Amino acid sequence: MFVRTPSGRKRLNVLGALDFVTKELISISNTTYITSETVCELLRTLHARHSPLPITLVLDNARYQRCRLVQDLAEQLGIELMFLPSYSPNLNLIERLWKFVKKRALNGKFYETFDAFRDAIQNTLENVNGTHKNDIESLITRNFQLFDHETFLAA
User: Deepest in the core among 36, 37, 99, 131, taking most CB within 10 A?
Assistant: First the structure.
């Protein structure tokens, strides 16, 4: 049995912010690397679209997100940065979106070219508020199981 795979190594990076209330996705993508400058580009885009509303951006602990450049720009733009505890992707709602994108665009699919691969991902992202709106509504909820200290210790 032969499984077709592309040769070579190309990457598509997507950095995104998802509005919990409206489910609007703002994303930046590139084929190089995500850097602090990429995060700053996302912050500027968020500020341009949502100013003067308050913005809180939930982030993981990637170094390019925690650096002084990003923190200074966020403070200048009035964007609150909330960093999640290490090793807790389950608390980051956008991880649910990334899982959805992988399922819709990648699972069990072979793309002849990198352009076709990129287009499939971009198409899925562009349709978050359109074709996929109902799916996203059911995925992006506040369904977290909370434990108080006593319950956790009793288990």
Answer: 36
Task: Please state whether the predicted TM-score (pTM) of the whole model is above 0.90.
Answer: no
| 130: phi then psi, degrees, rounded to nearest 5 | -115, -105
The per-residue b/e assignment along 62-101, b for 16 or more CB within 10 angstroms, e otherwise, is eebbeeeebeebbeeeebebeeeeeeeeeeeebebbeebb
128-139 residues labelled b (16+ CB within 10 A) or e (exposed): beeebeeebeee
Q: pLDDT tens digits, residue range 100-132?
A: 999 999 888 889 889 999 999 999 999 988 898
Q: H/E element holding 55?
A: strand 55-59
Set out the domains of the chain in order of their start, with CATH numbers.
Answer: 13-154 (3.30.420.10)
